[in-house]
Amino acid sequence: MSGNLGRLYRGETTFNFFGRRWLGFGISIALMVITVVSLFTRGLNLGMDFEGGVAWEVPAATLTVEDVQAILDQNGVDSGDAKIQVLNGSDGDRIRAQVGAESEAVKSAVQTALAEKAGVKTDDVSVALVSSSWGRSITEKAVRALLVFFLVVSLYIAWRFEWKMAVSAIAAMAHDVLISVGVYSVIGFSVTPATVIAFLTILGFSLYDTIVVFDKVHDNTKRFSASRVSYGDITNISMNQVLMRSINTSLAAVMPVLSLLVLGSWVLGAVALQEFALALLVGLMLGAYSSIYIATPLLGILKTRETKFKSMANELHLGDEMARIAGTGKKAARVVAAEVSSERASENASREVASVSAALSHPPRPRKKQRR
Q: Is 64 helix (H, G, I), strand (E, B) or coil?
């Protein structure tokens, strides 16, 4: 495979990731500011499992969303605060109406009215009741699991690599979760237990992609330990070498999630899959982004303050120079080959000059006497 795509697959690109780190930081800071503002102003659209309430599901063959809204209003339930969804399934469409906590009389009255309007039996209209205390318990357990995960991961990375890599990895994971939650707040997606599980899954993927880059950075740090190479160069070389691997990993993870979202949710009508797949899709893309534009540049900033790299903090080799330092790729090979050819040409020229000089400085051979 030749061309730019071939160089990408062989890890021979020379993108200046570290030099553009502030662009990535700026985008992330802007997204986090939007997230914080949205959380304080709009909040999260918590599902019934967290807030508690009542949900009715009724066959929608002869029923519309407007009919359901009218029935709720007639029974003293504000339809403006209700969450009404049309669920597509293999056994036909169903309408789901979810509201806050209501009395037993209201639940029965709405169930009966929905059954009469849809032309079905009362038992065909399902009623689900969830206590808000159960949702609070789920939230508390999720937060504890998140904190324990951060602690264990930090200790492992600090033991396996160093504490600066642990700090950078935790910052990238916190970045991914915060912005993912912000997306749910801004767009208004419903947050359910499935969403929380997806957020925890995001952390695992984000960590995996970051460790892949950190492992290459760790190897290159040892490789260039005896050379005068800045840590910015080391991070640039490392990220270019594993760039295709990160892209392939992200694509391999995103494709099944897209199938869950498109086929499972939109085609088959499994709303629970939609809640899970949306969080995964957002988190996977953020995890791939943060491993390159957040975790590794942040590590580079922390490392350039060390005594060994501080004097080279502003040194950054780009293009052919980066390829030459990395020692891989056709571009580097051409540079090295040109230098070798130049050196050999100089040596050959020097030898020729020396041989000519020696020939000119050698005394002439005496002529033989001619016989008479």
A: coil
Residue at token pair 């008479």:
372
pLDDT in tens, 10-37: 767 788 888 888 898 999 999 999 999 9
CATH of domain 53-130: 3.30.70.3220
The beta-strand segments (E) located in 92-171 are 94-99, 126-130
The Cα–Cα gap between 365 and 10 comes to 62
pLDDT band at residue 328 under the 50/70/90 scheme = very low
Q: How far is Cα 117 from Cα 61, in angstroms, rounded to an integer?
A: 11
Question: For domain 12-43+134-310, which architecture applies?
Answer: Up-down Bundle (1.20)
Quick one: CA torsion of 86, 131, 126, 268, rounded to 10 degrees? 40
Give ranges for CATH 3.30.70.3220 in the chain. Answer: 53-130
Element (H, E) at 53: strand 53-59
Residue 172's Cβ-side half-sphere holds a number of Cα atoms within 13 Å equal to 37
Structure tokens at 63: 């029923």
